[in-house]
Write a structure and sequence with these properties.
Layout: E1 11-14, H1 18-27, E2 33-37, H2 42-45, H3 48-58, E3 62-66, H4 75-87, E4 92-97, H5 99-111, H6 118-123, E5 135-139, E6 151-156, E7 161-166, E8 172-175, H7 185-203, H8 212-233, H9 238-252, H10 265-277, H11 281-310, H12 321-338, H13 356-361, H14 375-385
Parallel strand pairs: 1-8, 2-3, 2-4, 4-5, 5-8
Antiparallel strand pairs: 6-7
């Protein structure tokens, strides 16, 4: 296990009616002017908006709304939010939604306090913001675990880059599984697969020798797989939904990453696919993972083989490490098909003339991957996914 220092700033309020029980107490700690951020109309249709507005008003807050945050939030939307925050002298941001809203607000929080362009500051000047507007998150769509970290994935349409930026940690997050019960099942499955992907990509980093973090990770993966199946069998299963929302948080609260250098090469490739096509993130990961992992088989065989046994329950008797590694990739591919996620880019309706060469060449190459990819091989991965 690598050396590490572990401390985490995000306070979690988990359970049904968590907002009613805890939000007022948190609001008492912050200033009057609150930016209420959300995406489309779902928070109004499912009653979450009215509940939160009532709590904000009872707390004596002046509310400014920042709405229309899209899936794959754009850099232009970040700047819109930062401008709004400055104009209304916002004291606190309450982000309500899934990963897109939650990611967007992390960077709004930083940009509103920064006197320069944050993209240029982080990528050209290699700086990190240090001042932020305090924030809280109310999760209504799970999967990304975005509420648990300070990284955000933002699409810069001018640069044709969907890339990480780093902003503020949330002071607290509210995880009420009841808020997620109106999620369409396709979104539940896609989001939960993203959680599974986070766990696998963390597992596939260095060191390759299994440590305590990896063993907790194996349990997290088993939990996600079991509860995806349970949710499909019974969409009203609150216990399964509770497990999935906490598994998403577990995958990104740092615990699985303790002592690890993580992989996330599949995520980087999917991000650039998203930059060029605005595709669904979880679906893109589902298409890419098996193909990318077949390219990784020789280098990642020890980890793949252990996952085959410990996560997928494959009997190791009489099988070589290479055979078990292949069995893991086969099991993952079969599960993706079983739960109704796409297995090709064509199923996702990605245009046939998509510039896969440009996608591959602009993909960030990660240092923690068991295999050191080059752009040309990632290009062939994309071609194989068509």
């Amino acid at each position: 296990m690598n050396a590490f220092t572990y401390s985490y700033p995000v306070k979690v309020y988990f359970g049904e009616k968590a907002a009613q029980k805890h939000l007022s107490g948190e609001l008492a700690k912050v200033g009057t002017n609150v930016l209420l951020a959300y995406g489309g109309g779902s928070v109004k249709k499912n009653g979450v908006y009215n509940e939160l507005i009532g709590i904000l008003q009872s707390a004596g807050k002046t509310v400014t709304e920042f709405t229309g945050i899209m899936s794959n939030p754009t850099y232009a939307k970040v700047q819109e939010g930062a401008k709004l925050a400055r104009a209304h002298q916002i004291d606190f941001i309450l982000a309500v939604g899934g990963g897109s809203v939650i990611d967007c607000c992390k960077i709004v929080s930083a940009q509103a306090k920064l006197d320069r362009d944050i993209w240029d500051y982080e990528y050209a000047q290699h700086g990190q913001p240090t001042e932020f507007i305090p924030m809280g998150a109310v999760v209504t769509a799970f999967g990304t675990g975005a509420e648990m970290n300070n990284g955000a994935v933002i699409t810069n349409t001018e640069k044709m880059m969907k890339s990480p930026l780093y902003g503020a940690f949330y002071d607290f997050t509210i995880l009420d599984p009841a808020y997620t019960m109106t999620m369409p099942m396709k979104q539940v499955i896609s989001g939960a697969f993203d959680s599974l992907s986070h766990s696998i990509e963390t597992y596939m980093g260095f060191p390759q020798q299994v440590n305590l973090s990896d063993e907790i990770n194996e349990a997290t993966q088993r939990n996600i797989i079991r509860n995806i199946r349970a949710s499909i069998a019974n969409p009203d299963d609150m216990q399964a939904r509770s497990e999935l929302i906490w598994a998403a948080a577990m995958a990104e609260n740092g615990i699985l990453k303790i002592g690890k250098v993580t992989d996330f090469q599949c995520h980087m490739l999917e991000h650039q696919l998203g930059a060029y096509t605005d595709c669904n993130h979880g679906q893109g990961l589902a298409v890419l993972h098996p193909v990318l992992y077949r390219h990784m088989l020789p280098e990642a065989a020890p980890q793949f083989a252990r996952l085959a046994v410990e996560v997928w329950g494959i009997d190791p008797a009489g099988k070589s490490e290479q055979e078990l590694a292949n069995a893991f990739v086969d099991a993952l591919a079969a599960f993706i098909k079983e739960i109704g996620l796409p297995t090709t880019l064509a199923e996702m309706k990605i245009p046939v003339d998509t510039d896969y060469k440009a996608i591959a060449e602009s993909t960030i190459l990660t240092g923690g991957c068991a295999k050191k990819f080059i752009a040309d091989e990632l290009y062939h991965v994309l071609l194989e996914c068509r």
